[in-house]
Design a protein that fits this description.
Low-confidence stretches: none
Shape: globular
Strand order of the largest sheet: 5-6-1-2-3-4-7
Number of helices: 3
Distance between the termini: 34 Å
Mean pLDDT: 89
Radius of gyration: 14 Å
Helix content: 10-25%
Order of helices and strands: HEEEEEEHEH
Strand content: 25-35%
Length: about 110
């Protein structure tokens, strides 16, 4: 299916595969975190690790780091698995409050 505009439904983003620049699959987008005041997507929450969806962690990645690659039909982030493994994360059963302290931790990790 060809995308004919720059707008996409969150349903189509969730589940999209995320790769690193080398083409290695890192995981898939599980959720989007949207700024309530600006309406802009602040983070894509990457599902990574585990086996068959069990024991996976969620890694919030600043939305600005993701670039859509039509040839891979997925997003590319400038991260390798080792960097991602050290990133802030949480279990799907314990979603943190995205308060100033938490977002500061995530942003500092990624150099923002």
């Amino acid at each position: 299916m060809t995308i004919s505009s720059n707008v996409i439904s969150s349903d189509r983003v969730e589940g999209t595969t995320v790769y690193n620049p080398a083409g290695d699959k890192l995981g898939s987008i599980d959720d989007l975190m949207i700024d309530k005041l600006s309406g802009q997507v602040r983070y894509a929450v990457l599902e990574f690790g585990g086996f068959l969806g069990m024991g996976t962690d969620r890694y919030p990645i600043p939305w600005s780091m993701l670039k859509y690659d039509t040839s891979q039909d997925g997003y590319v982030v400038p991260l390798d698995k080792a960097t991602l493994e050290g990133a802030p994360r949480y279990a799907d059963t314990s979603v943190p409050d995205y308060d100033d302290n938490y977002t500061s931790t995530v942003n500092k990790y990624y150099g923002f």
